[in-house]
Amino acid sequence: MINKVLIANRGEIAVRVARACKRLGLRSVAVYSLADKSSEHVRVADEVICIGPAPAAQSYLNSAALLEAAKHSGADGVHPGYGFLAERADFAEQVEQAGLVWIGPSPETMRTMGDKVAARRTATAANVPVLPGSPEAVADPVEGESIAAEIGYPVLVKAAAGGGGRGMRVVETPERFRERFETATEEARLAFGDGRLYVERYLQRPRHVEIQILGDGKGRTVHLGERECSIQRRHQKLVEEAPSAVVGETLRAEMGACAVTLAESVGYAGAGTVEFLLDEDGGYYFMEMNTRIQVEHPVTEMVVGVDLVAEQIAVGAGERLAIDSVEMRGHAIECRINAEHPETFRPSPGTINHLRWPTGPGVRIDTALYEGYAFPPFYDSLMAKLIVWGIDRPQAIARLERALDQTKIEGLDTTLDFHRRLVGTRAFREARLHTSLVDEMLSEPETDFRARDQSEPANP
Ligand code: MV4
Fold first, then answer.
1. Ligand 1 pocket check: which of 277, 278, 286, 291 to mutate, most ligand atoms within 8 Å of Cβ?
2. pLDDT tens, 50-76?
């Protein structure tokens, strides 16, 4: 049902998708902007088409140019990667109306999950735990305040059209409710053209744990375990791992069943992620569902041995899922290596004048970098993902330390030094992770984040 895949993306994920196409015996078409003529993703695809100038709005977000490229190349499937148009239901609809296969769930499912109020309603209907909150968007601050009083403070007001933290405000006390509600409404209107808000009990320092699912839309859905994604800064994940140190077999089975039930309730076809917040008492609560392949999918691949992108394409092509259930084996950790300053995280584009990658058992690099490449300033700053696997978490950490030491990227600032520091902290080694950890590490380096005890062997 698919012979040729148009990859509507760039960088490492476009390279990743092209490789999966090759493995499946499908032809791939890369698209590129004028800033990306010499990008690696253009070199690994079977065919290439220029779709416009450097700014994403005129290239990778230009749906008309992408559809034209698909038509011109004779592609019959479109893989969106992550970011850009990956979660735009309207684009998915245009792809299907052009007679092409959208490699992802239906536009209707994307629309439901893209509206956080509808997603919460769907989760509630599927008996998936949600935090106490408003069942629908609240009409005005008065209604919001009365719901907040029932829930108890602190509460969080969140944009229905949101995600990624925009249009979100913590409210500590009733006196502050109206003001915070109004600023969040304005922010959401400005960012999304939709000011609707809902209210939830606010969890302080939660863990972010997400379940990977695959569905074929033909009656089979499986979960592939969880990823721990708590190590982030300003809603940008920096390190992800699988499994989570706090998720045992029972909790995994429970959260996995919730994710599968939710996916089945919308006839989910493709790869998806159900995000949960975990509190300190082992409670878990639905947060959002992402209808795309995610940056951090490799940690799941490393512990379950499934090629998620290949499965995603196969299901898109109309095949039934061949996977019954999976077992997680060992432990995987991913570090996102960004072209950013390791302390301020300021973007740092530039030319890679020296590059050396680590090698060895259980080491994987997903990247589109090469020596001499001028890393462009126009798109996101992810340069590479360093993924390690070990039989258990301590071995994975030992391999990660060695791999980070072996890696050399010269010519621009990178987050490598952040990762080297993070893996040495006691909080990380003891897996005491939560969503405020990085902020605390950067603001109070003397407390819990001093280097580990020197008596601890570096490579157990
Ligand atoms: C929350 C929360 C605490 N309580 N909801 C962040 C982005 C958006 N997807 C939802 N987010 C959060 N929702 C309740 N009821 C804390 C966050 C949150 C967060 C979640 C996951 C990873 C990092 C985060 C950083 C700050 C806030």
1. 277
2. 999 999 999 999 999 999 999 999 999
